[in-house]
Amino acid sequence: MIRLRKPIFLILIAFLLGLQVMDPSEVWTILLVGFVGTLVTAYVWAQSLGRDIELRRETRLRWVQVGGQIEERITLSNGFSLPAAQVEFVDQSTLPGFDASRSTSINAGYFDQWTLSATCKQRGLFYLGGAEISTGDPFGIFEVNLRDFKRTSILVLPQIAALPELPIAPSGSHGDGQPRRNASEKTIHAATVREYVHGDSMRMIHWNTTARMNKLFVRLMESTPEGDWWILLDLDKQYMLGAGWDSVEEQCVTLAASLADRGLRLRKSVGLIGNSRELIWLTPQKGEGQRWEIMQSLATASPSDLDLGSVLERILPSLGRQHSLIIVTASTKLDWIKTLLPMTKRNIRSIPTVMLLDLAPYGETSAEQSAVFLEERGVICHVIPQGIMDLPKMETVPAKGTWQTTPTGDLIPLPAGKVTG
């Protein structure tokens, strides 16, 4: 879009034209031709720049964890045969701490290129891209405004923290959560072996022991199944105190992400429920695909008005008998315990595990008293003090240097001074 920046030129041309009509003179003619020629030249110059200015943005990564770094290379090129004396580039990226805006000038047939990096300190879904470019003729008569709507999504995943040993109550259909030997409910875990007797299933033969002892042995299985993990993340906004990494919200999300990572590494099926603004419900699954789904959901999770008791009531019919329920919450009022206790007897038939964040640093009731209350009622509770999860290590990579394009089209930053053949 071209905009006339100095309308005084049109006024002067109209004035000179009027003088020429009323009092024809060579002076008015020369001035009129000069002003009209300058106006036309400026218009053509600005219009050509608007057509030949090109923007290219190249992002190295599409997702990163909190503490990681994003880099983007931006190239503004001028394909016109005359220079762009002044170019204003206004970046509209939404990633906190990332602003690629700058003023520059580009000679005819050349380009300006710069690389910008930013450390991702906040989880969420953000965008790199969207820009306004302003340029014009060197006389400042016309201004050209260009819009670039292309955006690249950047998903900042929660950090995985190194947690201390936090025992999780096992699940079990017998109600005690303990494994039993020689039971009719078989699992994939063998407790021991014994000699084969008539009537044993051939599928239960332990071939390694059979080969070593030169006679048939069968496996004795534990009665408690491997037990899926249901992680319930409570994001009731009335308890989401503080700001930044030390906020209750970020600590809860990081704890849930770290627990999910631990469960998946133990080859368990892990599910996630969260009373986020958009309800999170991921059924227990194994593998890297499930890890990605969980981390993606946690990256965009945000507090809501839904309290923990209401969530427990909603999920009660959906939890099976062989699930370990892990609750991550900062709620110390414990009104939700009225819903939890009957549920442990009727549906899950195992002891739930509560990860209770301590709000004492924010002037709230200490979590220790609530933990004692839960323990007395048979609920395993771990108090999570502030600072148990360290700040994420902020990665630093050189902002300057060269980039190499791989055969697959990926961009790899190279240290400054390194030249590839």
Structure characterization notes:
The protein has 421 residues and is an alpha/beta fold. The chain folds into three domains: 1-159, Immunoglobulin-like (Sandwich); 190-221, no CATH class; 228-384, Rossmann fold, CATH 3.40.50. It has helices at residues 8-22, 26-52, 207-213, 248-265, 288-299, 308-315, 337-348, 367-376; strands spanning 2-4, 53-59, 63-65, 69-78, 84-91, 102-106, 111-119, 124-136, 142-157, 190-195, 217-221, 228-233, 270-274, 280-285, 323-329, 353-357, 380-384, 402-405, 411-414. Strands 1, 3, 5, 6, 8 and 9 form a six-stranded mixed beta sheet that branches. Strands 14-13-12-15-16-17 form a six-stranded mixed beta sheet, with helices on both faces. Strands 2-4-7 form a three-stranded antiparallel beta sheet. The protein is elongated. Mean pLDDT is 81; it is low at 173-190 and 396-421.
In short:
With 421 residues, the protein is of the alpha/beta class. The protein is 26% helix and 30% strand. The chain has helices at 8-22, 26-52, 207-213, 248-265, 288-299, 308-315, 337-348, 367-376; strands at residues 2-4, 53-59, 63-65, 69-78, 84-91, 102-106, 111-119, 124-136, 142-157, 190-195, 217-221, 228-233, 270-274, 280-285, 323-329, 353-357, 380-384, 402-405, 411-414.
